[in-house]
């Protein structure tokens, strides 16, 4: 297996990508290809470790790419014009089979555009979307879409439910994972037009598509471990994700201040530090890595833009697992089956009928 | 001052409303009127305290109302047909000046419908909305709309920004409060159509409307104490609110488990319990009470549906402050001024022009 890593992508690149790669290499079996400016990467490696990456491990190589896609670049233009950027080179290698998975922490818009344009959608998937894995009470919670599609239709949310179901079954080994629809109440009549219509679609077609639909889920119930995935349009999903990150930060800051309140509380907190650390780890979203871009023909992982060494290491390990679990193969097999194609056709006709009625 | 309390509204009513009223009465100066089934309220009071409410305080009275609006009632029908329900009676008393503020933890849809239909909007406010007060790092964060309007237009978000600004200035005494627009990125080009258009409107008209517009705010930055209010449509705002509540619950559960991990960590946690308690209090959304329905002609407070005795007590105290701060008077004065009316007219013409261009 070969993991392709965009060495120039993210706020802390290339320092964090290089350090993350070195930290990960002894914990994975795959080869690792860093894509970016070879001179810079080699100089940095000498600076950090006193030797070249190839001297550190024969499973790390560098693939030169002279350009970079910047955070402020316009996605479609960047993908079209920066042919020798680390991101475009990475996608082309993935497409040609010169690697099994591509990881980047760079410009999110460009990553999604590039994956769709250069790697291509799985036939039958209308909109690929980002599936993120969050910590939940005694388990994990998949959130899809984390932010790829700001405007969605009910058919998209139905497919997000189907894709996350297949993904969870294949990677986490959960039989009939429970999929909830992110809403502001549990009743059928709650929500905006998009979620109301998506609810109707999920209710009608879930069992035929092997989705274990758990109905509407409010954000406050999402983390209690009762569901395995939550689906939403990319705008709402991203608001959800970032609120949770925001509160996580606030919680850590407040907890630290409570402990450091005065000299007595400082001393008092010493014996419980191991517990506090265990707790802090359980709410640290950095422990939970990148989001998978599900619905494209090859595995693409969007790493957190602010990833540091530790998070790149984690995301690289996660990418290896993702390839091993063959979730993309399974998604492709199901979506390209005649049965699923016919079902999607039927669903789209049903939607047209509903919309004409309104 | 007279505070009107819907004694029958909420998951824990009337037990929690009665106990909350008794707990609050010595910490407020206002009179308190419990609206609901007199027989039941009196019997409960005897049961809980061994005496009638009037014997407990001469500032507590009961106003009889024979009907109740249930959680599953359809809002408009309930408000129209249940004329002798505690909620409709409460609104009518508020309208007639027989009370200064109305609090209810009952059916949210009915509360918002009743407030708009029976009490009436402030002229010039297109959509009243719920302003909630959340804890933030070293301060408070106002969120508007918490969930009253699931589908919004840019003019609504502009008015939410203006109303929350006036409200914060009047009640929290903050000069030029900073108002952010809830979005999934900080750049102007980010977000769905609603927030993109709202951004343009806020950018163009903020200074003329005395709004200190801080631009787009991501959920993860919202709690860091850098802004005073965040505006969103009611669907997105409610998702934000409930995600935060959900993570709060998960955090508390995880923290408790980390502490109770084994006998050693249990013993170790004893000295730091005061710190932990201080922390738990800072993330307890129950400490932060009800949401104010801003944009109607009289003060209306929506208490949390699952309010317990403690939260009703807090919300009653909050309602008293709300009346004392005269935020509704100030909102009315500004919105009914010719200057603001003309400005709103101009803004609406601008929106029409923009929409026709698209």
Description:
- The structure is a homodimer of 358-residue chains.
- Chain A has 358 residues and is α/β, with parallel strands linked by helices.
- Chain A is 49% helix and 15% strand.
- Chain A has 14 helices and 11 strands.
- The first copy, chain A, has helices at 15-25, 38-49, 53-56, 75-81, 86-95, 108-119, 154-172, 193-205, 234-259, 263-269, 273-282, 309-324, 327-335, 338-357, and strands at 2-6, 31-36, 60-64, 101-104, 129-136, 139-144, 178-182, 212-217, 229-231, 291-294, 300-302.
- Chain A has an 11-stranded mixed beta sheet, sandwiched between helices.
- In chain A, strand 1, helix 1 (15-25) and strand 2 form a beta-alpha-beta unit.
- In chain A, helix 5 (86-95) packs parallel to helix 6 and helix 7 packs across helix 8.
- The first copy, chain A, is globular.
- The model of chain A has no long low-confidence stretch (mean pLDDT 89).
- At the A-B interface, helix 9, helix 10 and helix 11 of A face helix 9, helix 10, helix 11 and helix 12 of B.
Rg over alpha carbons of chain A: 22 Å
Low-confidence stretches of chain A: none
What class do helices, strands and sheet pairing of chain A give? Answer: alpha/beta
Main sheet of chain A, how many strands, which sense, barrel? 11 strands, mixed
- Helix content range of the residues of chain A, please? 40-55%
């Amino acid at each position: 297996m070969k993991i392709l890593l965009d060495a120039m992508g993210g706020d802390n690149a290339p320092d964090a990508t290089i350090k993350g790669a070195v930290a990960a290499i002894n914990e994975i079996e795959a080869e690792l290809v860093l894509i970016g400016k070879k001179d810079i990467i080699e100089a940095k490696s000498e600076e950090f470790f006193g030797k070249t990456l190839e001297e550190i491990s024969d499973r790390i190589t560098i693939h030169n790419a002279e350009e970079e896609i910047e955070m402020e670049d316009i996605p479609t233009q960047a993908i079209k014009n920066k042919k020798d950027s680390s991101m475009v080179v990475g996608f082309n290698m993935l497409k040609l089979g010169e690697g099994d998975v591509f990881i980047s922490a760079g410009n999110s818009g460009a990553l999604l555009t590039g994956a769709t344009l250069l790697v291509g959608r799985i036939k039958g998937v209308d909109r690929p979307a980002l599936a993120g894995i969050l910590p939940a009470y005694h388990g994990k919670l998949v959130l899809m879409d984390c932010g790829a599609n700001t405007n969605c239709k009910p058919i998209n949310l139905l497919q997000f439910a189907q894709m996350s179901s297949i993904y969870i079954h294949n990677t986490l080994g959960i039989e009939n994972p429970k999929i909830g629809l992110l809403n502001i109440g549990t009743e059928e009549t709650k929500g905006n037009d998009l979620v109301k219509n998506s609810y109707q679609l999920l209710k009608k077609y879930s069992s035929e598509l092997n989705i274990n639909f758990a109905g509407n889920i409010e954000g406050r119930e999402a983390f209690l471990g009762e569901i395995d995935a939550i689906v939403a349009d990319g705008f709402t999903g991203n608001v959800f994700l970032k609120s949770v990150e925001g509160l996580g930060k606030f919680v850590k800051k407040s907890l630290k201040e409570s402990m450091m309140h005065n000299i007595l509380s400082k001393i008092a907190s010493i014996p419980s530090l191991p517990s506090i650390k265990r707790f802090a780890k359980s709410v640290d979203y950095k422990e939970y890595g990148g989001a998978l871009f599900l619905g494209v023909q090859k595995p693409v992982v969007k790493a957190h833009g602010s990833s540091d060494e530790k998070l790149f290491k984690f995301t690289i390990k996660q990418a290896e697992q993702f390839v091993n679990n063959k979730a993309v193969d399974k998604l492709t097999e199901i979506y390209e089956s005649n049965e699923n194609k016919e079902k999607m056709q039927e669903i789209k006709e049903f939607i047209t009928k509903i919309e004409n009625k309104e």
